[in-house]
Amino acid sequence: MPTLDIFNGKPFSMVELTTAVNKNPFKPGFLGSLNLFTDRPIRTLAAAIELKDGALNLIQTSERGAPLEEGKNEKRNIYYQETARIAKGQTIMADEVQSVRAFGSETELMQVMQLVTDRLNGPTGLIAQVEMTWENMRLGAIQGIVTDADGSTLVDWTSVFGVSLPAELDFDLDNATPASGAVRKQCSKVVRGTMRALGGLWVVGQSRIIGLCGDNYWDDLTAHKEVRETFLNTQEASDLRNKIAFESFRYGGIDWVNYRGTDDNSTVAIGVDKCKFIPVDVPGLFERALSPAETMTYVNTRGLPMYAMTIVDRERDMWVRPEVYSYPLFICTRPPALYSARRT
Question: How many Å apart are CA 77 and CA 50, to the nearest integer?
């Protein structure tokens, strides 16, 4: 078997492994590709979120020389929320390592490093599992409630801020004889409601809304008479005919996407009859706080997305264990802007 002392060398130090992990191309799901969440590295275990309830007010006219109406200071609220801990390891036994090493080989370090790298970077490796966990947390945050792997609530932002989500809209997509313009009217409710809830955060010409559709919702939306008639005799007509699954198109001021989650369509997924609307390119709406690792090396440093280390069996020399850690908090600062809909 190889000399496991090699794991004490520089390539296997926590700093070196963490640097390598954070250089890896990011392979999340669709929400990760949108870059919705702005990273906010912090040096503490909890994030402080300050919200200002500024508002524009009409000014009553007054006579010349009359006393001025006194302006009111903006109300500021600070909320504290702890980051979560995502951590997992996978043990490599000595029997697995000895099969890749020839006695006296100069490539021993390279081969063992490859085995550790495979456990970290493989298709179902530790890094991929952390990224899937991030995607699940993002999916929760864009619905106002961040959930854990078992479905339990980690952070309910509506409760933290003392607000509520908008009522779910019924798009009535399975109606055989829908009223004229019914779908477009519901789209207008989403767009107007989102913009009003965001106030000055909405950037005209930049911000937009994406509707993440479950499978049944998508199928009925793309087959809906009103939607299809809108595209008749236009260049987009052929495009809409080809929007079979996991595609996207624009209608009613909304970019519609058939969200592709996990293959079981339940672990990380949009309900098949549901749609979740996300305001995109809205500065300050979604953020990800990142706390430092729980080691002396990184104490009081600015948090990184992910940390990696190897633990060696120093007593029996029988195994080595790569581990990954992440300490994120996925934040939505304006839950009242998060609209949702059902198929019927």
Answer: 6
